[in-house]
Design a protein that fits this description.
This protein is of the alpha/beta class. 52% of the residues lie in helices and 7% in strands. The protein starts with a helix and ends with a helix. The model has no long low-confidence stretch (mean pLDDT 93). The structure holds iron/sulfur cluster (SF4) (2 copies).
Amino acid sequence: MPMDPRTYERGLTCVHCGLCLPACPTYTETGHEADSPRGRIQLMLGLAEGKIEPTETVRKHLDLCLDCRGCETACPSGVIYHELIEETRARLDQSRTLPLQGRLVRWLFFNIFTRPSRLKLALLPARVLQKLGIYSLLRKVGLFGLLPLQLRKMEQMLPSRGPLWPVRLPEVLQPTARASTSTPAIGFFAGCIGSVLYDSVNRKAVDLLLAGGAEVRVPRAQSCCGAIHHHNGQHDPAAEMARRNIDAFFPTGGAGVDWIVTDIAGCGAMLRDYPHLLRDDPAYAQRAVEFASKVRDISEMLLELPLPEPRHAIAMKATYHDACHLAHAQKVTAAPRALLAKIPGLMLAPLPENDMCCGAAGTYNLEQPEMSTRLSRRKLANIATTGAELCITGNVGCAMQIQSQAIAEGRKLKVMHPVELLHAAVFGR
Ligand code: SF4
Ligand code: SF4
């Protein structure tokens, strides 16, 4: 099976030291070398060299990888593991025939999850039932337990509240406070799943940016970041989305933005990866580098803006879970903690295995529900040792995963985005 020589070189930088093994969630769970980063790298190099065949067993070990990138943080040799697994998956996908249910789930990913209007429409019946108070009753009588595992997992992830039809953010919003120097123009990346399921978090993020003296632009032409396609081996559509986003935030001949900000770690990681995605596109390669250099997580941006003092105390014991796509992919760990430290009354208890994947990993929780559930149980058990009543995390997918697992286990745990807490501390609502 061929492999791009540049990706192959990445694999050769592995010196087999094994320091990544304890950081790997799947290895930690199974103890199997083929479920570790080191083992998978050997499998992928073996495939590329034609020394091994892409048998079902080989595929199984590679499919089980969360692409969480915990191994990259742990690796002293700087192996860029995600490029290896993403290319290998794309190549393996070309010769794979998925069963009907797998095809249906993929179709939902590519055609519904990545299109906010379609997603809103698909969720409308559930939202109506929630408003009428019938949905929780159906959950209680176990009706959804009849669904196949993957669809059941999808159902469990649906937040229990939300507007019937989330309205899009305005295209341009003026600052509500004057910045001391110049007014930065911030392009806000709303995300597809984020803008539908976590619309209120987006709105709170924008409120804070405006209060920090920024002008916020939400270009209508922005599309899905491409992560769902990219992580499922569909690189061409992902690259097309990347081009669309570059054009949306930096229109040719128009005024670009100073920064591109998102409150969704998964999207932020993908946006920062555009230079890799478009490296062979002569028209966009350089634009992708410039675009990625402007991407900031909301926590980083809010730290740089002159925000009003958070005066409203939040007297809670909380713990912070590092989303993989924030901590490992974007190396953002200090900024959210620094923001949370400003909130009066908030006690932050350290979380054991704070940067180990919760099992969400994009669409992994729907494709590998068994391992995903093992990891979310592990996360919940770790959270329980802290005695926290609140878990804070900077990614929609993690929030949904941890919250739904807490509900399934009957635990009283609230899950919130740092932005929600900061907003409450600043505005008192
Ligand atoms: S990406 Fe995550 S699951 Fe995959 S090998 Fe690395 S640490 Fe393990
Ligand atoms: S830590 Fe890096 S070099 Fe060591 S085995 Fe893991 S991937 Fe290879």
